[in-house]
Specification:
Two copies of one chain form a homodimer. With 222 residues, the first copy, chain A, is an alpha/beta fold. Chain A is built from nine helices and seven strands. Chain A has a seven-stranded parallel β-sheet, with helices on both faces. At the A-B interface, helix 5 and helix 7 of A face helix 5 and helix 7 of B.
Chain lengths: 222, 222
């Protein structure tokens, strides 16, 4: 007796199996889902709060909120009246596709236009775990310095979009520490198609470009 | 035949075995070794460059420099003429005690007063891996927001010292986003003995308090 072995059939990890489930669910429901990744304190939550509030008349947005501990960020999202599911990872440094799967089951997906996943604040580990999202958005604050694409290339190589946040601090940080053109060039060396939007979630500067990008992506069905 | 089993004998992980080796080596040589941990872009390298330069007449400092990719930080340290060993983790999100062990073997330890380990930029994972150091120093930039001790408690609970860096940006960031007294109170709730120094590696403000702390620790033989 011989068993037939299929050569080339990729065996999926447990995480990738759930990522595939999530991808299929999102495709069936035709929903855009974006995975926001950054260092702690780059402003992911502030960007989401601003985006949800300013697009409230146009888009229904839901959020899956990942944190190691506390629900401080989920509370900030909840204050906008957007539906939010909190995942407390209790020490784990990234969200898993299984966690996102369970959160998706608890969100009113059919009523939403757009779902954001706010990953754990970590520029390294979350980039290695597919969640089934349609795209990753990396956020970099100008206070973090302009060497980050070179030093943490994985997430810049994998993201659809780079939001350069806190440009209201640019003058105080100074061009020696943050040369915005260098960041753009270094990110594009890793990823020629990456879209880059310098923004300030605090002052609102540049946010319209980001909103238009979101609206275009939703319209294009991705 | 029965085997005698020693109850209570802790079985060390491979990492902890190397951490123990490092701790013994540092104790034999009576050297202070500090493990610097923070988010990407909080200013660990800038703090080291400033500290090495300003204490050049008093202390001989060596550095073990951890990065996921590139030797950009090691180059900045090398420019101060301090001995530096670069560890490129190639994707790994933290330094291991084995990597530090090999770096220690390549540093002229007997000629040094103080060894800094600059961990990978990551506020989460490095806190879980003992390297055999005498203490951890956590760095938080004021641009990262004042909710970090609550959201990432492990590293604040485990550190001897908290450096609140980039206080030159405090005015631009604003007290709404960074209340320095709240950070101090939250960190002390997790760790009543933590020493806290607000500093700016850029302007030099507050650095003297940090230098005096280092000198006291070296004098006390820890």
């Amino acid at each position: 007796m011989y068993k037939k072995v299929e050569i080339g059939k990729k065996i999926l990890s447990a995480n990738d199996q759930y990522a595939l489930k999530n991808r299929q669910l999102l495709a069936e429901q035709k929903k855009l889902c974006l995975n926001m990744i950054s260092s702690p304190g780059s402003g992911k939550t502030a960007i989401l709060v601003k985006t949800i509030s300013e697009l409230a008349d146009k888009l229904k947005i839901g959020v899956i909120e990942g944190d190691i501990q506390t629900d401080l960020d989920a509370e900030r999202i909840r204050a906008t009246n957007a539906p939010v599911i909190q995942i407390e990872t209790r020490g784990s440094c990234h969200l898993s596709a299984a966690q996102v799967n369970s959160a998706l089951e608890n969100l009113p997906i059919s009523k939403l236009d757009l779902i954001f996943i706010e990953n754990v604040g970590n520029l390294v580990c979350p980039s290695a775990f597919e969640l089934g999202e349609n795209g990753k958005v990396v956020v970099l604050s100008v206070a973090e310095g302009d060497d980050k694409p070179a030093k943490y290339p994985a997430i810049f190589a994998k993201s659809k979009t780079l939001l350069i946040n806190k440009i209201d601090l640019l003058e105080a940080v100074g061009q020696v520490d943050f040369d915005i053109e260098k960041v753009k060039a270094d990110a594009r060396k890793l990823n020629k198609d990456i879209e880059i939007f310098p923004i300030s979630a605090k002052t609102g500067e540049g946010m319209t470009n980001w909103y238009h990008w979101l609206e275009r992506k939703i319209k294009a069905g991705q």
